[in-house]
Amino acid sequence: MSIIKAYVFPHPPLAIPEVGRGEENKIKKTLDALDKAVSEIARLAPETIVFITPHNVVYSDYFHISPGETARGSLRQFSAPQTQFQTEYDTDLAAEIAKTAQQHQIAAGTEGEKSAELDHGVTVPMYFINLRYKEYRTVRISQSGMSTSDHYIFGKCIAEAVSKSQKKTVIIASGDLSHKLPGSHYGSTPEGAMFDKKITGILSSADFLPLFGITEKQRSDAAECGYNSIMTLAGCFDRIMVKPKLCSYEGPFGVGYAVAEFSPAESDQSRNFLDIYNQAALKKTEALRQSENNYTALARNSLEHKITHGDTLKLPENLPGEMTKNKAGVFVSLHKYGQLRGCIGTTVPTTANVALEIIQNAVSAGLSDNRFEPVKISELPYLTYKVDVLSSAEEIKDPKELDVKRYGVIVSSRYRRGLLLPNLEGVDTVADQLAIAKRKAGIPECSPVKLERFEVIRYE
């Protein structure tokens, strides 16, 4: 038995009468769509429902699957403690999903539970399901900080595990869309409506390929929480034809709520969306490498050599004198599918020349940036590189002497020090630049700091 149905559900607590106290009537389209969906779930009578939630513990390098045999929850944080939930976990399927993920080199398991209480990414959908049907067990899975492609692969692992288990299973991808629609107390941006239009188009067509083209900046600008749940759902239907239906969409409170359903049909080898995207990305990377400069070529060669041979690349011959005779701080950043994959740099020179600085920092960016897992050999063909060669920093007295496009900034307070490069996507003002640099250094935003600026020559 494979997955019998999958849904995208929103999770606004105010949809529940005990919380909304009449406000739920303003999202009648959503409530009607949820009622029809849960009526169908009751008719299908699944043995297990897998909830993918953004509101349980999230790890940067690991998919968390809630452990234990049972779990409880309530809506007390939304002033409705009387609304309570209890569910029995499907421990066998949870174990099978973790095992299958490990076989596909995706880190997942039941370690690291921080709260056994069910989160509202689960309890809100569960409230509506339980109105119609209760004879199911639950698997609760968290989103992670891993890449979009890893979420897709993890979805494939869920589907494979369900198939092995032979259990009738429904998938619930829990998540709201943009929190930046008109009327939102988070503030309204045009990007919010644009994001929701794109996502609802994808849900309507079940053409999941455009999901891979949505950037981290677009997601951040929209302030969404459902993208990774939807990407995991998409992976559940890799090489499977599905019949999609966008049941409803509305956003009267400034948050986008979508209800969608997906019915699996026959096998369809053309719907291998990750492979298609990888092939396109590989062609793009290969084209970029045809016009590679000495700086990015050296960064790439040094990381590839370290990963494939285990030792440090020797300084190549015939490099230009500006790389072998000059000293400077250097930052090397790696990107995969247009998203940051690692970045390490030095603000002042630590080696004999710029070339050696690149070799050192490219390896560190790929293997020692603690925000990311070390780069795997299979990723090397998809990586692109940027090299920033820094000028000497100069102290300034006033933020007015900064320019986010021209100057990078260093902020210092006692033993804390933070740096931000210039001309970064999404950093549009000096205030943004300073705030991000302070956060990186762990300096409170209101604290006075010593300011330094520097220029870079960027090679990409």
What does the model show?
The chain is an alpha+beta fold and 460 residues long. The chain is built from 13 helices and 18 strands. The chain has helices spanning 17-20, 28-44, 91-103, 120-132, 148-165, 190-205, 216-222, 227-236, 273-289, 294-309, 321-324, 354-367, 430-441, and strands spanning 3-9, 48-53, 63-64, 70-75, 80-88, 108-109, 137-142, 169-174, 240-250, 257-267, 330-336, 339-345, 383-390, 394-396, 408-413, 416-420, 450-454, 456-459. Strands 7-2-8-1-10-9 form a 6-stranded mixed β-sheet, sandwiched between helices. Strand 9 and strand 10 (257-267) form a beta hairpin. Helix 2 packs across helix 4 (120-132), helix 3 (91-103) crosses helix 5 (148-165) and helix 6 packs across helix 7 (216-222). The protein is globular and about 75 Å long.
